[in-house]
């Protein structure tokens, strides 16, 4: 069993910044990829950013240059630094991790609300 605990969401004005954190715990031998997804009301969940165990990153076009994903492998934690936030970034942000223990498991966090006011 693996748990992901997210923190750092909140309300911010357009142009502001927020930092999300997601810590993984439980039966983990290795974490392959970690990432952040978001889901706005009435829309499908979409990938925001992902990072591999080796540090390779992937970003949605809409956040390139504004968001930065990073991870601390020693702490099994992934971060999402969000700058120059826009109202269209408003969504519930979900952490995702692919972990290896006795098998490969994909786990989702409970979600954290990010609201950007104009």
Note the main attributes of this structure:
single chain; 118 residues; mainly beta; 7-stranded mixed beta sheet; 4-stranded antiparallel beta sheet; 11 strands; elongated
Q: How does this model look, in words?
A:
- It contains no helices and eleven strands.
- With 118 residues, the protein is mostly beta strands.
- Strands 2, 4, 5, 6, 9, 10 and 11 form a seven-stranded mixed β-sheet that branches. It has a four-stranded antiparallel β-sheet with strand order 1-3-8-7, with no helix packed on it.
- The chain is elongated and about 45 Å long.
- The mean pLDDT is 96.
* Largest pleated sheet: 7 strands, mixed
| Number of beta strands | 11
Binned strand content: over 45%
CA-based shape: elongated
Q: What is the straight-line distance between the termini?
A: 40 Å
Describe how the helices and strands are arranged.
Layout: E1 2-7, E2 10-13, E3 18-26, E4 30-39, E5 46-51, E6 57-59, E7 67-72, E8 77-82, E9 91-100, E10 104-108, E11 112-117
Brief sketch in words of this structure:
This protein has no helices and 11 strands.
